Every structure is written in C-alpha cells, then in structure tokens.
Amino acid sequence: MGVAMFDVVVVGADFSPTARRAVVAATELVLMSKGSLHIVTAYDAKTKSVKQLPSEFANKGEGGGTEAALQDLSFVAKKLGVDPVLHMVEGEPAKVIVDVADEVNADTIVVGNRGMKGVRRVLGSVPNSVAHEANCSVIIIDTTE
Prior knowledge:
Layout: E1 8-12, H1 17-33, E2 36-43, H2 66-79, E3 85-90, H3 93-103, E4 108-112, H4 126-133, E5 137-141
Parallel strand pairs: 1-2, 1-4, 2-3, 4-5
Helix pairs in contact: 1-2, 3-4
C-alpha cells in the first residue's frame, strides 16, 4: 500500500471561471502528494462541424478555442508547480471524466459544484453523475462565487 490517497488526481473542467478553482484545488492536492494531475475536458461533436472540432468547444462563447482554453487551465497548474496531463475527449462530460479516471487509475476525481445549485448551467448535474459513477473518491469543490 503506502500510496498517497491523492497520487493520481483527475479534475473535470469546462472553461468557466469556476472551473479554474477546481483546477487550483486539484493542483494543491497533487502538490501535497507529489502525484500526477490530469485535466479532463469534454466536447460535444454534434454541435460542431468536423473541421472545427479541434479548436471549437461545446459551450459556445465561453472558451473560444478548446485547446487554447485547456492550455490556459494547464498554466494555472504549472504556475503552482505541477505539469498536468491534458485530455480532450468527445462525449458526455460526466462519462468522459469517469472514463479517463478509470484509464489512468485515478485515486481521486475533483469537480466543481457548478450546476448543482441555481440555474442549470453547462455542467448541469455533472458533479452528481460523477459521484454516482466514479470508481474512486470524488471531491466536489465549492466553486460558487
């Protein structure tokens, strides 16, 4: 055993300001455990033509280019001293996050609680779904203003 609980941390992020908080929280866990960080973002192919996929994202008007926004989130982690692995996967956000977590044998998934309170936003009830589907610990960060 002897493995830290936060050895492999997966954080699910869209490109909202609140997602940055989830990334910061996940990065802090990884710094404590000296583990590895995976930032996962999901996109919906149905809403975009194939040509645009690499640079366009499902939540229009919020992140502009997906890869640019993902890089931006990776800089958040890098500034704190962690070099994350980035995953951009087509599909339903909750499913994508859980699948990547399984793939990398994550100990912990971090998600923000955006969408759990008040008006349903892009992430909808992703934190709920992740909590039910995950095969590892799930930490739901309060990312509300």
